[in-house]
Write a structure and sequence with these properties.
- The protein has twelve helices and nine strands.
- The chain is an alpha/beta fold.
- The chain has a five-stranded parallel β-sheet. Strands 1-4-5-6 form a four-stranded antiparallel β-sheet.
- A hairpin with a 2-residue loop joins strand 5 (about 105-110) and strand 6.
- The radius of gyration is 18 Å and the shape is globular.
Length: about 280
């Protein structure tokens, strides 16, 4: 991870303790605040987390993009997606960081900016297998925690952010929606990308993904006991963000400081378009 005083990137290679010390000046001025958003695929975690971070003037850690980027490396290098040990080595050897200056933040892997290729159907078909390996998840959890040491005012989304990666997070949310609604969202996303698949096939794949995510031996999808449950099914994206912003400000007012309690620009978009994957 680069020196946070000289740039706005987070990397997995630097010593976390040294990085934390480098960030002490900033931490003293502004207290740590971690907001986690967990939930199954297609509930809009990435979209909502990005917009909520913008509202609260926090940084956005897109863990789903991290898993998708590693999956892309697996495909490009012709590795076996079932070889968790080898993939974990790829994670540990890679320079994975975020450039937090653009909006939304951009993920860089070994200096390469990850773009739409990590949202492709090929990556989507394999990412659950890659993310399901205990060795891979352990390496990625260490990467995520290292980033948070240097950038400790974050909104982060995934499957296990509040339950495992950041169990002491200041505010935790769990987003949910029926598989029917999530399948419609995924179908709309695919159409925008020029791809197509039958609705029932998408729905069945989502339900299978849910079962796999919940049965993982490590980093399983669970709702943290202290998380706030939000059903995104009947809500528009700005309604979800409004609710999460209000609740976060209520629970972390002293950490966020004085700020506008509502509404930035009116957000338009689709829940689930972010391609949740972790």
């Amino acid at each position: 991870m680069g020196d946070p005083s000289s740039d706005a990137t987070g990397s997995t290679r630097s010593d976390p303790v040294q990085t934390a010390r480098q960030s002490q000046g900033q931490s003293r001025r502004r207290p740590r605040v971690i907001v986690t958003i967990d939930g199954p695929a297609g509930t809009g975690k990435s979209t909502v987390a990005h917009l909520l971070a913008k509202r609260l003037e926090l940084e956005f850690l897109d863990t789903g993009a991290m898993y998708r980027a590693v999956t892309l490396l697996v495909l490009e290098r012709g590795l076996n997606a079932s070889d968790g040990g080898r993939i974990a080595e790829v994670v540990r050897d890679a320079d994975i960081r975020f450039d937090f200056n653009p909006d939304p933040p951009q993920l860089l892997v070994n200096g390469r900016r990850m773009r739409d290729e990590i949202r492709s159907a090929a990556v989507t078909a394999v990412v659950s297998i890659v993310a399901g390996h205990a060795d891979v998840r352990h390496a990625m959890v260490q990467a995520q925690r290292a980033i948070a040491l240097a950038h400790d005012r974050l909104v982060t989304e995934g499957r296990d952010q509040g339950s495992y990666v950041f169990p002491d997070a200041d505010v935790k949310f769990y987003l949910d929606a029926s598989s029917h609604i999530r399948a419609h969202r995924r179908l709309d996303q695919m159409k925008k990308q020029g791809e197509f698949e039958e609705f029932d096939a998408i729905r069945l794949a989502i339900e299978e993904r849910d079962r796999n995510d919940r049965s993982r031996p490590f980093g399983a999808l669970v709702e943290p006991h202290d998380a706030i449950h939000v059903d995104t099914g009947p809500l528009e994206v700005h309604e979800v963000v409004d609710r999460l912003e209000r609740l976060t400000r209520e629970r972390a007012a002293s950490l966020l400081g004085v700020g506008d309690a509502g509404g930035g620009d009116f957000e338009r978009g689709d829940l689930g378009v972010g391609g949740d994957s972790a």
